[in-house]
């Protein structure tokens, strides 16, 4: 999760203060820009093999198997029936659902809702009981879909900072980015 702490300092030469409502509007617009950038540039990467490595997805059954064991596993069946081994994609329902978003921005943050993927982890996944990965925690697809890297967090912080600078004009401020 990205946390940006924005602190406003009055300009040294100006005696006019920025109104609270105007400042909140500037922050809301900045968070909205971050939400649009997150959706347009980062969500689609979650459905690629490179994205799975970059975001540190948990291994799926059969990814490290060979021979008969591979073809009987989830990954092998996906390869045999659907001719792909893309991350977070079986039938394509989740990937298609992630092409629409609703962005809710306030002065305190942004939430990017993907209404087409409400079926992910509809029921609480169970811990694996047998096999080579027994005892592994269940795969939380929602967490994997909403993960961002430190590089992406830096990009979002810069977008937020640029939007606030644009909204405030000549007024001075500083932003401090922190990862939680």
Describe the structure.
With 180 residues, this protein is an alpha+beta fold. It has one domain (2-179). The chain is 41% helix and 13% strand. It is built from 7 helices and 4 strands, in the order βαααααββααβ. The chain has helices spanning 20-42, 49-55, 67-72, 74-82, 93-97, 141-145, 150-168; strands spanning 2-8, 102-106, 109-113, 173-179. A two-stranded antiparallel ribbon has the order 1-4. Strands 2-3 form a two-stranded antiparallel sheet. Strand 2 and strand 3 (109-113) form a beta hairpin. Helix 1 (20-42) runs antiparallel to helix 7. The protein is elongated and about 70 Å long. The termini are close together.
Task: Tell me briefly what this model is.
It contains seven helices and four strands.
**Cα shape:** elongated
Structural class: alpha+beta
Helicity, as a percent range:
40-55%
Counting DSSP H or I runs of 4 or more residues, the number of helices is: 7
Taking the alpha carbons of the first and last residues, their distance comes to 6 Å
> How many discrete structural domains?
1
Strand content range: 5-15%
């Amino acid at each position: 999760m990205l946390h940006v702490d924005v602190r406003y300092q009055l300009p040294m030469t100006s005696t006019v203060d920025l109104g609270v409502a105007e400042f909140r509007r500037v922050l809301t617009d900045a968070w909205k820009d971050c939400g649009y950038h997150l959706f347009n540039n980062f969500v689609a990467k979650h459905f690629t093999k490179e994205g799975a490595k970059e975001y540190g997805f948990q291994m799926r059954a059969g990814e490290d198997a060979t021979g008969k064991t591979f073809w009987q596993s989830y990954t092998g069946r996906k390869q045999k029936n659907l001719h792909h081994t893309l991350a977070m994609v079986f039938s394509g329902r989740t990937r298609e659902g992630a092409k629409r978003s609703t962005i809710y921005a306030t002065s305190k943050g942004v939430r990017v809702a993907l209404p087409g993927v409400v079926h992910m982890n509809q029921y609480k996944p169970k811990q694996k009981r047998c096999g080579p990965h027994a005892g592994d925690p269940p795969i939380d697809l929602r967490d994997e879909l909403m993960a961002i890297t430190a590089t992406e967090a830096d990009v979002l912080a810069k977008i937020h900072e640029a939007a606030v600078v644009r909204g405030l004009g000549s007024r001075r401020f500083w932003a401090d980015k922190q990862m939680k």
